[in-house]
């Protein structure tokens, strides 16, 4: 049976039926989220401020928008400008209760897949907790950081922030445009009027047709390495054989499309976001050639997959997005 998320991005009778039948719940959800945000804005509910700048990289859509590669790129941007960043995250998929700083020997079950991947790629301190305020407090007490980046948390209003960056998946947009549970929106689209930067993962059709540059980034493949021994190969080495492509991310089709554009013939295996892999998931094809995302790799490195390879990507920022980041973030770091 298809998940509800599938119908958020579909047209037709079934998709319309499910969406419209859930609209009363969506209306209630919108009212509650609106009131909650207003309570923080009017200071009826208490929020907490850190002693260093806080930048939230999040979205208004449930199910992922590809924000983690952008966060990694911003970490590198801050490092290249001579400053030290730290990251806080919900740690979705982690079995930890309370607050924890990600360590090099942690598993994805301990740290969560995205926090572990962020730590492995950047080396910056990463702290996970369902309570973002507690995570920020722990991060700053235990580490020397000039700025805090929050992986998601746009709706975590108890944590004050200096800059909000909202990421939009250009290929999927806002789905049917309804709030949860009838649609994918965590907040109404009008919420984007209040954020500091809107960053598109990919380029919208409108921008492409009008030949205009928007604040966007593209995911470019930079490395392919073996899951177990770390051997590096060229992506072209997969062009003459059929391979199994695994993706347990917010938008698996983006990963599959990118591989196809590089001339690779695929057997697609789309799993739910944050899926916890077991050997049984690969029971009939575990010895075949497999490629997967880095987010999947941190949850598969304990499995017996002799011919599994990891596709590493980087977020290439458009000039307009890079300029916007420079104009908004660097003055905070320099105290100007």
From TrEMBL:
Enzyme class name: transferase
Keywords: ATP-binding, Kinase, Lipid A biosynthesis, Lipid biosynthesis, Lipid metabolism, Membrane, Nucleotide-binding, Transferase, Transmembrane, Transmembrane helix
Organism, as annotated: hydrothermal vent metagenome
Sequence intervals crossing the membrane: 12-35
GO BP terms: lipid A biosynthetic process; lipopolysaccharide core region biosynthetic process
A GO term, aspect molecular function: lipid-A 4'-kinase activity
Pathway stated in the Swiss-Prot or TrEMBL entry: Glycolipid biosynthesis; lipid IV(A) biosynthesis; lipid IV(A) from (3R)-3-hydroxytetradecanoyl-[acyl-carrier-protein] and UDP-N-acetyl-alpha-D-glucosamine: step 6/6
EC number, UniProt record: 2.7.1.130
Signal peptide range in chain numbering: none
UniProt-recorded name of the protein: tetraacyldisaccharide 4'-kinase
GO cellular component, one term: plasma membrane
InterPro entries in UniProt: LpxK, P-loop_NTPase
Pfam families documented for this protein: LpxK (PF02606)
């Amino acid at each position: 049976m298809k998940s509800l998320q599938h119908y958020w991005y579909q047209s037709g009778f079934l998709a319309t039926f499910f969406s419209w039948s859930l609209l009363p719940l969506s209306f209630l959800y919108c009212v509650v989220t609106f009131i909650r945000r207003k309570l923080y804005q009017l200071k009826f509910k208490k929020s907490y401020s850190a002693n260093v700048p806080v930048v939230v990289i999040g979205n208004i859509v449930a199910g992922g928008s590809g924000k983690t590669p952008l966060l990694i790129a911003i970490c590198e941007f801050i490092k290249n400008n001579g400053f030290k960043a730290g990251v806080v995250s919900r740690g979705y998929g982690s079995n930890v209760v309370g607050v924890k700083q990600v360590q090099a020997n942690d598993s994805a079950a301990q740290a969560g897949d995205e926090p572990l991947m962020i730590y492995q790629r950047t080396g910056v301190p990463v702290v996970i907790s369902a309570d973002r305020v507690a995570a920020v407090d722990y991060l700053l007490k235990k580490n020397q950081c000039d700025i805090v980046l929050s992986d998601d948390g746009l709706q975590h209003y108890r944590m004050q922030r200096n800059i909000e960056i909202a990421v939009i998946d250009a290929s999927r947009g806002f789905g049917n445009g309804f709030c949860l549970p009838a649609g994918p929106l965590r907040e109404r689209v009008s919420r984007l009027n209040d954020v500091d930067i809107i960053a598109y993962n990919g380029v919208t059709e409108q921008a492409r047709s009008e030949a205009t540059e928007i604040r966007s980034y593209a995911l470019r493949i930079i490395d392919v390495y073996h899951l177990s021994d770390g051997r590096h190969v060229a992506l072209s080495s997969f062009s003459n054989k059929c391979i199994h492509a695994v993706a347990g991310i917010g938008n698996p089709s983006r990963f599959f499309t990118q591989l196809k554009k590089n001339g690779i013939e695929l057997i697609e295996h789309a799993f739910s976001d944050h899926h916890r892999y077991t050997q049984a998931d690969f029971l009939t094809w575990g010895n075949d050639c497999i490629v997967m995302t880095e987010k999947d790799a941190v949850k598969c490195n304990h499995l017996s997959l002799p011919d599994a390879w990891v596709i590493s990507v980087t977020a290439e920022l458009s000039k307009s997005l890079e300029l916007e980041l420079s104009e908004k973030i660097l003055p905070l770091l320099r105290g100007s």
